[in-house]
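Recap quiz, item 2
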Amino acid sequence: MSGDQEGNQQRGDQRMSGQGEAADRFADDPAFAVHEGGKLEVRPTRRITSIADLALTYTPGVARVSSAIAAEPELARRFTWAPRVVAVVSDGTAVLGLGDIGPAAALPVMEGKACLFSEFAGLSAVPIVLATTDVDEIVATVTALAPSFGGINLEDISAPRCFEIEARLRERLGIPVMHDDQHGTAIVVLAALRNAARVVGRPLGDLRVVVGGAGAAGVACTKILLEAGIGDIAVADSRGVVHTGREDLTPTKQWIAANTNRAGHAGSLIDAMAGADVYLGLSGGSVPGSAVATMAEGCIVFSLANPIPEVDPEVAAKYAAVVATGRSDLPNQINNVLAFPGVFRGAIDAGATAITEEMKLAAATAIADVVGDEARSDYVVPSPLDRRVAAAVAEAVAACAREQGVTV
Amino acid sequence: MSGDQEGNQQRGDQRMSGQGEAADRFADDPAFAVHEGGKLEVRPTRRITSIADLALTYTPGVARVSSAIAAEPELARRFTWAPRVVAVVSDGTAVLGLGDIGPAAALPVMEGKACLFSEFAGLSAVPIVLATTDVDEIVATVTALAPSFGGINLEDISAPRCFEIEARLRERLGIPVMHDDQHGTAIVVLAALRNAARVVGRPLGDLRVVVGGAGAAGVACTKILLEAGIGDIAVADSRGVVHTGREDLTPTKQWIAANTNRAGHAGSLIDAMAGADVYLGLSGGSVPGSAVATMAEGCIVFSLANPIPEVDPEVAAKYAAVVATGRSDLPNQINNVLAFPGVFRGAIDAGATAITEEMKLAAATAIADVVGDEARSDYVVPSPLDRRVAAAVAEAVAACAREQGVTV
């Protein structure tokens, strides 16, 4: 072996091993080729090619750096990588549309997330998939490993556990913690809705919104839309509109019931859609075109189930002025990658100790403003590849954190 | 921002921030410059520059890979990075010679270790420093995050907790677990002693050894020397030779008492050194030259405290045929980097479920054999930069694992 070259060689060799017969099974799908051997690597920022390098990177030089941090803990922000590394933490219980597939099967998704952190925000990110689904154990584990990281991106953890896990970690840890399935989605939905309102010529706060789904994303979207000034929101779960008369509500849904449904709906999602300006689908399942037909003139349909939207996009287009989905092959893709890289980058740049509601609202506005005056019915959010977005989001989030004073 | 270039630019900018006045304080010591911004980064193995890339690395393509792993868990070995990533885990309680300095101050050491894994074995490694020193919590935390990694390198955890933590994790986890302060040191000490015995023309098993120190390294060195066939070993802690008549012994030291001290020493370390062939210093503190003068003709002194060896190396050289230290500025540096990269690389290459005693012995022999016939008094171990070592160790360890059948 002779250093990196040979190291890479060995990695290459290893990736080749075990193929042969097996390769045939996966050869037709390029996704498997992209995942061969995993999608990440950890590399030193400087090579070690001399005894002098070794004596600076490792002992005895490193002892002087460790001693300095022991004496002045804030020096860890400058002389370790931790403040610039995000842990992407999942227990594998709610992975994409696949459900509870466990930590090993969730790992490719977390690796992908880490790739996006690097690609769009220049941040290092490490996937941490957990062999437990117990709330107390997850909180204890993430708390224990927190000194290793500058931020915690919770991912693909099922509701309602995700609410408690995030809330407890936010309370315990002095670094940014965000459950992306909630807040990443909410930020991008709000950004898209800002521009959709502009396209249909309506003030955001006047829109009457129906949210289909009261899971992680449904709850977070409802909250951010309330914070953005939308007063008339009805939220439906699989049993119909969430209202204060229901006795089957979790604490989170009790909060929803108390803070939404000004109009007093008590029936089904489809009942509530009649006359609504916005349908926000976050539930999966199927909503018939006939329900969209009952919505208000110039309505907005965000149907985000992936890969099969709740409302068929072609049918939705017959009735709606703006249609958005989660699909990359259609216009107006609501993709979390527009939010999380810049949100964490901004929080980390500012030395933020938390990601506040105001920082999320600032992120949504920044995403919307990248589109700005160019907004039209098939362009309410930027492309997920638009390199301007993460920088704009990071700047807005960092400015907000500094203004709020939630920084180290 | 425009991808990696801008990402790196931002990283660069960030590293610059906070310097100015502060830079002056650390400008005289190049170790701080090497640590500015940390020493590691996580990078994707492939760029994401198109919607097609995004659809393969992330949704929807990644869902097919995750589904395949959910159906056939062993596919995680091929399609995730986990099998090739080592977690370098520390609670910061016994860091170098600095003692209990906590997780943040320990991090530069763990980052350095991760650099060495990459540099010498082409393995990715992630530092995990823990906000707990409780044995149960450490075991629970590492168990919870184990599906994210292919091996666990425990580091700088104080004795006697390190023994229980390692033993419990080895029992629980089906991946290689090794406390490097114990076994990395032991492997390199055995390698060096094999060649030192050759230099002085003695069979290894005939040597009479005195070990100064019964902490993590002292215990592990004693065990590996016993396994290598050395029958006459006396181990001393700060209260003198460990023997069965003492009533102050921890369970680990009770084991030492029961399995060493054939000669029945009951006095001090210095008493036991009289007539001994080998002194192995792993305790820190100071041992006078007069004690070395009482050792046998052609004796061997390994004095590994760093940066100040227990026996002054110049004094030791007056009496000893072979002198080794932990220092990089003297010949015969006993440096763990000769062992751990190759040990983990070999274990991972073979798909080993554990690092067995036999694999450690094979590693020691492989290190010794890199020196082989060239052994002389000032060359009993290879240079820590010798690129042949990790490859030789990996090959020997992998072969041993396969032979023992401790593989997935």
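Chain A touches chain B through 122 residues (CB under 8 Å).
The longest strand of chain A covers residues 85-90.
End of item.
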